[in-house]
Input
Amino acid sequence: MSPYAINAVVLVLIAAATALIVRARRRRQERVRLLSRYAEALAADEPAPPLPAPLDGALGALQVHLTNAAAAQHRRLDDVRAAQHRLEDLLGGMIEGVLVIDSTGTVLLINSQAQMLLDLPRSELPLGKPLIELTRHPDLHQLVREVMSGGGAQRPFVRDLQLGGAAPLMLQVTATPLPAAPGGRRSFILVFHDVSDLKRLERIRRDFVANVSHELRTPLAAIRGYAETLLGDAFDDQQRARRFLEIIERHTVRLGRLVDDLLTLSDLELGRAALRRVALHADDIVETTFEVLGHKALQAGITLSRDIAPGAPLLDADEDRIEQALVNLVDNAIKYTPRGGHVMVSARAVDVARTPEGAILTAPDGFVEIAVTDTGIGVPPDDLPRLTERFYRVDKARSRELGGTGLGLAIVKHIVQAHGGSLRIESQLGQGTTVHLYVPRLRATGSAAASA
Output
């Protein structure tokens, strides 16, 4: 072969080798660019571009390690997202409000209950905002300052806060420092527990004990005083002794009536009062009530009347309990209506019942509304919501003078509630009062069933 041919072959081989090297370099450069874009997508938490099969050598090993690291990162992110969703579900389902802040007072986490209790706008996300911008309650910020200056102690700080607004709330707030992350800021968790109902029940319990003590003290003191007098020289005067004994009997009857009312109220509240439901005509119940109280109304100069709607449906109720409720209401109406006044009892069918709070109650076949309307002295608007509380009296002196125990309306309320109905009171001062009882109607498909 001539030298020219050999040179030509060498040149061809060099050109081919150069082309192969260039092509390989370009493939590696392209692969490096793909791996760079892949890494950038992973860093930005964006969908990563697909990669071809790994090359041989160090670049291929790098691609394998990178994809393995990406898969591990995806698994960790999925675990973190799952844990975050579980935390959100847990916090969202809590009845307590939860708020987490850092050492600068910036909100790191808050659940929906805390937003509601603190009356924060639900449309705005409070995360990342200073707590001072969200609420300016001084006691809350004082609690935050105390827990932040606790010197690193992990003990909780507890304080009761009363928040104003349309519906005032009493909150028990527990603030606790959280363990600081390595190199991170300290954080603090505040747990808000709504204790408004608990405080209200405590107040009712205290009032109840005080009222019972007061109600018992007066007749007991009278009985003791007159008994001591009788044990002295009062027996020598028969007329005087008889008068003292009559007073003792009157106070004993009052004590018995008070105890009976307390036991009745307790049985109704605890569900121990068995209801023997039967089909009742409203007219028959009104007739029995007027027979019981007719003489008392006549002596007081009060006119009794009724207005029973034609074809009024039957009640599904316990006869004794409903009569007890109606007698209580008509008796109250007679007591607080001046001579020459009028008390009317009406009954009609209604589809739904209304509670004092304005809520709607339903029954399978509706209700019978029994209303007791008088032309009496009426009740001031501020006293209306409390009329069914135990021992609550608008005119305490007159109520005791008339022999009331202060439990009548509470008993009536619990009687109708035990039947699945409600009680509602309307009144205008100086013009009279109307008490509405809503009792379920007898179902059209069959007779009333006995209920315990």
